[in-house]
Amino acid sequence: YHIFRPAFGEIMDEAPAGTWSEDIRALALRVPGVVATEKCFVRKMGFEFFADLHIIVDGGITVREGHDIAHAVKQTIMRAKPAVYNVLVHVEPA
After folding, report:
1. Which of 46, 41, 12 is nearest to 24 (CA)?
2. Is 57 buried (19+), middle (13-18) or exposed (0-12) by CB count in 10 A?
3. How much is the pLDDT for 9?
4. Fewest CB within 10 A of the end CB: N or C in the chain?
5. Confidence of residue 87 (pLDDT cuts 50, 70, 90)
């Protein structure tokens, strides 16, 4: 059991231990234009982590501005957390 349990968790997309989700949310909130975060799912595959994050932005901004904010969020997270291989950012209007 102790040998297979960690591998089984990765196969089943189990959330990693620790504060990964909270850390990623906090990093996203540092980016100008992010009003809040809604959902954050982190999973581990091999030695890398993948995050799916929903951010909330002002509903009156342009699509281009929303895209730029999402790109800044992705870059901020990946620079601060080198083990994160990719971040999918979904933009929600406030």
Report:
1. 41
2. buried
3. 61
4. N
5. very high
Q: Tell me if 86 sits within 8 A of 71, measured CB to CB.
A: no
What is the number of structural domains in the chain?
1
Tell me if residue 37 falls in helix, strand or coil: strand
- What's the N-to-C CA distance of the chain in angstroms? 46
- Residue 38 token pair: 């809604």
Q: Are strands 48-57 and 84-93 parallel, antiparallel or unpaired?
A: parallel
H/E stretch holding 72 = helix 63-80
Domain encompassing residue 17: 4-93
Here the CATH number for the domain that contains residue 8 is 3.30.70.1350
